[in-house]
Amino acid sequence: MKKKQFITLVISLTLVGLFLPTLPTQAQTGLLPFAGIVSFKIDCGCTPGLSWIWFTPLYLGGPVVITGPMIYSRYSTVLYGYFNIGVPGKRHLGDDRRGIQACWIRVGKYCIPLPAIGLMSKVGTN
Amino acid sequence: MRFLSTLVILSTALTIGILVAPASAETFVTNLTVGSRGSDVVALQQFLVSKGFLQMPVNVSYGYFGPITKAAVARWQAANGISPAVGYFGPISRAAIATQTAITVTTATTTPASPNLSPIIETDTPSAPGMRVDQVMLFRAFPFEVRSGDSVVLDGSGFSKTLNKVSFNGSHPITATSTDGAILKIPVPLDLAEGEYKLSVSNVLGSSDNPDINIVIKVTNNPQSAPTIESASIVGDIVTLVGSGFTSTNRLFTTLGDSSGPISSNGATLTFRVTDLSRYDQVKQFTLGKYQVTLWIFVENEHGINKEPYKLETII
User: Fold this and answer.
1) Apex CA B61: angle with CA A107 and CA B201, to 5°?
2) Fold of the CATH domain A26-125
3) Contact at 8 Å (CB) between B82 and B6?
4) A38: distance to nearest CA of chain B, Å?
5) Which of A113, A124, B25, B162 has its CA 20 to 30 A from that of B240?
6) What's the gap in Å between the CA of A93 and the closest CA on chain B?
């Protein structure tokens, strides 16, 4: 009987152990990490207080290093030291909500969402 | 055997519990004072803004508890009979917020499209992600060309779940409700004559009117479709778009910048050089041809602009 109990315990713990590591942080927070160096910044004309910041390189945690934009909002992004948000040449590290399009710019008689990779949730700079 | 069964049940429950349990709801659980930072401070500031006790200055970011926030907390404490009303957000203030039935401080429901664990304030006028919480804003009306009676979708922020008034050139008001604060679907009034109309939305937060931004629709008996991009390819630096609704005077707006002038089309295809885009050189000076980039493409002409940008991967 003790052998059966032991085997059952091992199987149960294995089950827990198998599933636990497969829960990515994203599933719990919706946030993914990013890091990069600022190339330039554009203010979002139709949504004042938001900035569209281009990074080269931009690290998103995968094997491919890319270049591209992220959005900073002074209304929702928590900014940490040294507060050099969007300053060309400054390193940024933080997390973001992928796919949120919050930067709207003026185009002729329209406003359009200037696409970006994500909306920064929190970010710190050097 | 009973032990075995219990063990299996407990293990399974633990496993399932770990898998399906949502992240714990974030509420105000820490004391906040001058110098505090983080999502709790953002939530507190959003709450104070929504209740009219705080007006965040231009160029000041949410998330830092400074003297302005302290003063706003003190005003809110005084208004709610919390003593001492000195701007320290401690257990008494947290309890007071929790007991205010008009609002609920809770964690946003996590959805695949827009997951968010930041504490938010459940209000009648939810703001779109990243937008200020105390303002109704209108960004877009789609489509541009419509007939009277057609439906138009408005994108914005701070739309009310219960009552919005949408005006056309300041008149012909209609009422509408939004489910998420970011989208309104409205009918174009039947009594609108042909012409262009500036739209505005007003609700308890005020009016979306902005002297710098005119969101317009064109009422016509013969509406034309806005451009649509169905496919795109890039060979060298030449991009070819295939779609419909292109005219003889199209303009491009992309993440690598705009076209320098109008681009003509036969109606179904449109060709341009990626190197001609206004921000191409600005980006290229950093990338030197080594990086993957996503080129998002809008095409605009006299009939409107495609609602969703077309995505094209390339190297720059």
Assistant:
1) 45
2) OB fold (Dihydrolipoamide Acetyltransferase, E2P) (2.40.50)
3) no
4) 10
5) A113
6) 15
